[in-house]
Specification:
Chain lengths: 438, 438
Amino acid sequence: MNIVLLSGGSGKRLWPLSNDIRSKQFIKIFKTEDGKYESMVQRVYRQIKKVDSDAKITIATSKTQVSSIHNQLGDDVGISIEPCRRDTFPAIALATAYLHDILGVSDDEAVVVCPVDPYVEDDYFEALKALGEQAEKGQANLVLMGIEPTYPSEKYGYIIPESKDNISSVSTFKEKPDTETAKRYISQGALWNGGVFAYKLKYVLDKAHELIDFTDYHDLFSKYDTLTKISFDYAVVEKENKIQVMRFSGQWKDLGTWNTLTEAMVDNTIGDAVMNESCKDVHIINDLDIPVLAMGLHDVVISASPDGILVSDKEQSSYIKPYVDKIDRQIMFAEKSWGCFRVLDVEENSLTIKVTLNPGNSMNYHSHKNRDEVWVVISGKGKTVVDGMEQEITVGDVVTMQAGCRHTVFAETELQLIEVQLGEDINVQDKQKFPLDR
Amino acid sequence: MNIVLLSGGSGKRLWPLSNDIRSKQFIKIFKTEDGKYESMVQRVYRQIKKVDSDAKITIATSKTQVSSIHNQLGDDVGISIEPCRRDTFPAIALATAYLHDILGVSDDEAVVVCPVDPYVEDDYFEALKALGEQAEKGQANLVLMGIEPTYPSEKYGYIIPESKDNISSVSTFKEKPDTETAKRYISQGALWNGGVFAYKLKYVLDKAHELIDFTDYHDLFSKYDTLTKISFDYAVVEKENKIQVMRFSGQWKDLGTWNTLTEAMVDNTIGDAVMNESCKDVHIINDLDIPVLAMGLHDVVISASPDGILVSDKEQSSYIKPYVDKIDRQIMFAEKSWGCFRVLDVEENSLTIKVTLNPGNSMNYHSHKNRDEVWVVISGKGKTVVDGMEQEITVGDVVTMQAGCRHTVFAETELQLIEVQLGEDINVQDKQKFPLDR
């Protein structure tokens, strides 16, 4: 099975755990059988591999997510990196070209596309396999998954099939309706459109060449920023006549809001949290290292991270976005290709952060124009290079770097530093990278 | 007016703003006319000075509160320091001896005793003055304030006066009753006992000599830890026949729980907080530097500090104590005589804190057995002394101190340091103080 997972953008609706640089699919919130926690993307990846250990999985995503994907899934996963966001048609065209030109997938093989964030069981991935097999038969150019509705939702588009058969031609598509219209659709046998479909590779590659002037993957990649934003639904699906839908009646949840996300939690709390016995249907996800105490609350979600603290009635939590948009703040923590950092203290002319480098990793060799930096090693060992001078470092060592000085650090073991940045104009843009000969 | 303010112990019921070392009376929660915030102790002190600018104010408290009191009220306030907690009779005896022997208050002058934490208006302090004047007349040995009840509370003891006059002899005292009994008391003209009373200095000093073998203030202070714990009510009030009560019908609130405390807040939020319009009767007190977003909540108090996060139904918030008792954690911030500190990061073998020294202040000259320390100056200037060597420091300077090395820092301006502690057994007890010749 060739599968393209679409890994979307920023998820403010799950603030403060997700933010502009940390999307919801990377939040480790799902308890596995061994008691650890995994993210949406880890769960989906594990489930696909369980159903088809040979599956070629390619994640179509933006540059900003690459570090998180490698950190969470390892280095073997295929990633089709969108140089910038250009909606789903360019993204799927690029991923398809990637499969063809980089992974060597042949024209007649099926490709299955699905979002990275549905909360589903193994039967869903069996259904994806069946979807791909149906596409390979060639009865239709596109085979969509039609999810049997469990309620008249206003959140999804609907597919009206021509028959009630497991596989049917598509009669028509309907935009997101109001509840009453949704009820009428459902009485007509309509299915939810979850954005899941399969095609023979050549079909989408041909469509891409029809609509975009490019030679191969590398060419498409290089001109990606010039492409017009257009959705795959609009560019392809709605114009295609040879199109089928395959029913899926298993569990399918879209965990896009705190309200729905908390339904998928095994325990009511993650992290340091205490509830008194008068709390009912309360969920606490605490990513801070201080305790949360909840008393006498009903139907409330509490989520705390270094970015902020949300306390919301669950129903209301789906209206979070405009409020989070107003909270325009410094990013307080981030995953990087080499590890992660967390902001500990912000003052007018200083910023103190805690840096954790994974074993064997290092930062870019870089300098800052407008700030001095001090590193204090608090755990692990490694090496620094400061203006070309290499030095071994271990716990208690202090490294001072004036503005302009080139520096990096290599982690031999996991290495933790307290970094104090000092200057009058501290910002993340102030960084020049340099090659490093070692 | 000679007034003794009893400043009580730890206030877990206002966790996470109060804790074992920060009592509720020091939380800056009351908005003043100029838009700043003051604490209970600052508010009461200001109110007394407004009514009687010559008032001799003595705060009876434990050692742990002395730094906070000086930070909030300045160095002029009198403090009668209890070397350890021995309940109210020894505390009042000690404070009375302090007034007599240290401040030179004469035997016949009145002393008014009241808790430091009632939420009252200026008329209350006028009433305290009247209480003292009544005590000086000598008609009774003790004159109590009787607060006119506004509801049949189970939280207070009751005073039954002999008459409905403004000043009356006391008929009897009643322990905290249940609501039905409280209603009956009130129908009999009972008044709340708020623990406020006045006496001629000699009266309590004589009682103290009767019950305790001591010569003067210094002697009493030195043997304080040998005294029996006994309340002033039990030792004195309940045994006294020449006792009067004076009515007080003004505002008097006991802000001991989040429920009552939030009633005294002018604005619904303090600190970085956003509420959506569907929140009703929600109060947010956010002492962290990350935002709190509240949505769709009713009658809820949210309080966040470096010690933790409370989210509670207001009614339920009065049952907080047993839950906080279970949260046994490191103190994450504290006021000190020289300024304050805040814990930024805790790892197994390191602790990173931010230290703020007030201008003109310094730490004790001290050393640690089991930890190295690194200071990075992030603002201000001053001097360090490390093993006798004096050195000027300013922003960006780094000072490293091995275990065993003696060190201190003097703040010329306000001075902020990031302090990284490194070692396998980091704890607050690991500290030896030394005299410093400068």
